[in-house]
Amino acid sequence: MADFHQNGNIAQFHNLRQRPIEELVYEIETFAQTRKISLVLPSLYSELEGPALSNIIDELSQVSYLHRIIIGLDRADEDQFRRARDFFSRLPQDHVVLWNDSPRMKSYMARLEEMGLAPDEPGKGKNMWTCMGYMISCADTAVMALHDCDIVTYDREMLARLVYPVVNPNFRYQLSKGFYPRVGDGKLNGRVTRLLVSPLLIALKRVIGDRDYIDYLRAFRYPLSGEFALRTGLLPDLRIPSDWGLEIGVLSEVWRNSGRHTVCQVEIADAYDHKHQDESEGDAAAGLNRMSTDICKAIFRKLAADGTIFTANSFRALKATYYRVALDLLEFYDNDAKMNGLTLDRHREERTIELFAENIMVAGHTFLAKPNDAPFIPNWSRVNAADQGLVSELRSLVAADNAEFAPKPF
What InterPro entries does the annotation carry (predicted)? Predict the structure, then answer.
């Protein structure tokens, strides 16, 4: 992907392979002396036993410019929390494991729920939100980076390229979004971006007309990537969804709060692979079935908030237009895969397009039935306004968990 194209909507930074990564890292180390960088790793306990995370920790152990690493640990009991602390203990940087299922954390979330401030459901959105609150309470970080814990092709160069645009004080960017080709095991991956988001945005433009927001989202080569970095001044006012609309939600919030000229995307890898979700055609609450519906709802709500009027006829037209566009793009992807010696199961992808088309209608009906439904987690400014002690209390309870549940020898 080494080109120099600029789309005019957001800045694009390419890997033109003219500069040694060591030079880039040296600059980041210099910037980090006055602009501290912290990394958030939202992790399920099961990922500690997977094929990716051990290598990620080995790579991160060699990163000298990180001020702190915050590991948000989900779906772990007490023994698993202890094991997790032992697993991450080889990190030389200051780090903390935030145990989302601890008794203290559950009590804290129960209090927030009574106040109408708690996330609606568990998952990556809630995990990220809690880690953001912890980082705000520390008040010593200028840049937050986040990436997933299931990247089997991980290399520390990814992180360096991701954080550079927002840690460089001579750049104005508030958010840096990673992009890369989704290729692995001889296959063309990235189904939800290729088969849902890209054709849906084209279809929306045809059905409802030009919208700055649509052009903004279309500018991202991989809008659903889980890798981004941002300046922490954005964190208190950042409202994020608790469902699969998380990545779209973050992009939408920064666009609303800061404008597109403060956003950039950066090429962070030549190839990228991680675990893949099942389509779950028979289960609307799981896999790509649930993901596609949540993403559609996130986009529809944002457009409605900007003044777009949707009707049942709008969604019927959108479904038909999307289906035609998606099939046209599928032919392009199929030809691209063949030219590059990759495989693509065209029959299966057409079935996935049919599933996504139905879910456009499901998301549309849900939106029309509950137009005021707000899936966003209250931002930390609101939490602080409700009770100024809640943010600092979060830091204290994380420290108490780590002090009480020290790793046991196994």
Answer: Nucleotide-diphossugar_trans (IPR029044)
